[in-house]
Amino acid sequence: MIENTPEGRRAFILANTRLQAPPHTPELSLHLADEVTPIWRMTEEALEEIGLPPPFWAFAWAGGQALARYILDNPSEVAGKRVIDFASGSGIVAIAAMKAGAAQVLAADIDGYCAQAISLNALANGVEVDFTDTDLLDQDGPAADVILAGDICYEKPLAERVMAWLSAHHTAGARVLIGDPGRSYFPKVGLVQLAEYQVATTRELEDREVKKTAVWTLAD
User: Fold this and answer.
1) What contacts 187, CB < 8 A, 6 or more positions away?
2) Per-residue pLDDT tens digits for 81-115
3) Parallel, antiparallel, or unpaired: how do β-strands 130-132 and 104-108 relate?
4) d(Cα 51, Cα 14) in Å, to the nearest integer?
5) By C-alpha distance, which of 177, 190, 201 is closest to 85?
6) Nearest one of 13, 49, 17 to 33, comparing CA atoms
7) Which CATH architecture has domain 61-218?
8) CA torsion angle for 61, 66, 160, 141 (degrees, to 10)?
9) For residue range 3-45, what is the model confidence (pLDDT) as tens digits?
10) Biggest distance spanned by C-alpha atoms of the chain
11) Stated pTM of the model
């Protein structure tokens, strides 16, 4: 049994992932798992809880890869700005923002493993990323110039809450950028497409090996 402490989680991540470059962001190196089922099962055993969602922090999801690619190619979106990476997972988008010159990035995720995963991944890429496990949807959230969100519309109730939260921040003046590979609950209106990519993924995670994935912002 892996000890469910920050040190234990860090050891678990190092033991069950390997440092590798996601297909769409070869500039970055992340501690990622090669297969879904083994690490998913081991995570449930470590936490002594069955029925958990997959360990999102252990994979570079299509929406996050696309959003990270967009940020790396368009650094002016975040350069010198305060950034929140919502539902950060592995931290791929947060790390891309720091690489692109953001003044500060706060990675937010309620999964307890993400703190250690993001810390390890930031270290591997020579950047510093702040982290919070507070559910930002329950509050106004810290002040930010830019809010980034990748792959946040895979469940209907969550998608509705997140889009309402993002819309409120957009109305308050924040720039909102979303990466999405055509999830079922991604809204079809009120958005402007900024870029589109063909992102290599795996059939273990997705319904096809290459996902057409877009980056969007909220319409004014």
Assistant:
1) 153, 159, 163
2) 999 999 999 999 999 999 999 999 999 999 888 99
3) parallel
4) 23
5) 177
6) 17
7) 3-Layer(aba) Sandwich (3.40)
8) 100
9) 678 898 899 899 889 999 999 999 999 999 987 767 877 777 7
10) 50
11) 0.92
- In degrees rounded to 5, what are phi and psi of residue 217? -130, 165
Cβ-count burial 27-66 (b if 16+ within 10 Å, e if not): ebbbbbbeeeeebbebbeebeeeeeeebbbbbbbbbbbbb
The owner of tokens 């070869």 is 26
Length of the chain in residues, anyone? 220
Cα–Cα distance measured from residue 180 to residue 199, given in angstroms and rounded to the nearest whole number: 11
**CA dihedral of residues 160, 163, 164, 165 (deg, nearest 10):** 120
